[in-house]
Amino acid sequence: MISPTLLMCLFFSGFVAPPAQDCLHSSSPAPEQQARKRAALSATRQVNTLQANGALRKGRAYLTQLEMGEAYAEFVKTRPNAPALVFERSGEILPGWQLTFDLTETGYWFMIRDTTDPCGFAYISNENGVIYTAEPIR
Fold it and tell me: How far is it, in rounded angstroms, from Cα 111 to Cα 99?
């Protein structure tokens, strides 16, 4: 029989794997999670599109988060089936997805993170328009 002290030492030294987490966006996610993930990817693309198109109308490089919300409200008027995205600083862009946005002197970056996923899945992008997937190292 292994003593509890030895078991703790093995656990903290890395010889015993920690309990597995149930990641929502694993290699075979449930259909409802696939749909949520597609909606978040679409929102990520929309942020980059708003930045690429909207800032030119404002006469400067990039929009603030509030200005993105205003530009999206104008966009939705011409597309009634567009998803309801929220660009408030403290709110979720989509249910269960948190937008973190930062406008810098030379560009912008943002992350749309799944707040319901214990593994912390997220989409990340910046002024280059390339979208990356991310999750914390486990």
Answer: 6
- Count Cβ atoms below 10 Å from residue 138 Cβ, excluding itself: 10
Concatenating the DSSP letter of every residue in 18-45 gives: PPPP--TTSSS--HHHHHHHHHHHHHHH
* E strand map for 20-115: 92-94, 97-103, 108-114
Cα–Cα distance between 53 and 56 in angstroms, integer? 6
Whole-structure pTM value? 0.79
Is pLDDT of 19 > 50? no
- Please give the span between the terminal C-alpha atoms of the chain, in angstroms, as a whole number: 29
Return the structure tokens found at 116. Answer: 């319901």
